[in-house]
Amino acid sequence: MGPKNAIEEQILWTEQGKMWPYPVNNEYKLGVEEEVSFMDHIFLEPYLSKHNLPKTGPVAHFMELVCVGLSKNPFMTVSKKREHLDAFAQYFNPKQVEKINELHEIEQIAAAKS
């Protein structure tokens, strides 16, 4: 036999994990993320220091924008955010950074002439 009324149905759903228990807690069943600090989700720039990326220029500006975008994503775990940062850091190897800086200089010269 199923529940007799809506209250019993909600009790059953809570026991099955389909509803949050009262009082509602936004951190209910976070899993691995319970051990992670809020600061780790927001301040991602210090994580970039382990990579040999330039501190100024277009690559640094791009990586800053990536950090800001990831910090505003509440649905990703910290480990997933760090994987994204690692992938971008691997892409921007020294050879690639040099090529980007050359293209940026050419663009700056062209903008100054116009």
Helical amount: 55-70%
Number of strands: 0
Into which percentage range does the β-strand content fall? under 5%
Question: Class by helix and strand content?
Answer: mainly alpha
Order of helices and strands: HHHHHH
Instruction: Give the number of domains.
Output: 2
Q: How can the largest sheet be summarized?
A: none
Through-space gap between termini: 80 Å
- Label the overall shape: elongated
How many helices? The count is: 6
**Mean pLDDT over all positions:** 89
Unreliable spans: none
* Rg (C-alpha, Å): 23 Å
3D structure, described in words:
The chain is mainly α and 114 residues long. It is elongated, with a radius of gyration of 23 Å. Helices cover 60% and strands 0% of the residues. The longest helix is centred in the C-terminal third of the chain and has 20 residues, at 94-113. It has two domains: 1-35, no CATH class; 36-113, no CATH class. The chain is built from six helices and no strands. It comes from Panagrolaimus davidi. One of its GO terms (cellular component) is mitochondrial small ribosomal subunit. GO terms for molecular function: structural constituent of ribosome. This is Small ribosomal subunit protein mS31.
Give a summary of the structure in a few sentences.
This protein has 114 residues and is an all-alpha fold. It is built from six helices and no strands.
Features:
mainly alpha, 114 residues, ribonucleoprotein, single chain, Small ribosomal subunit protein mS31, structural constituent of ribosome, 0% strand
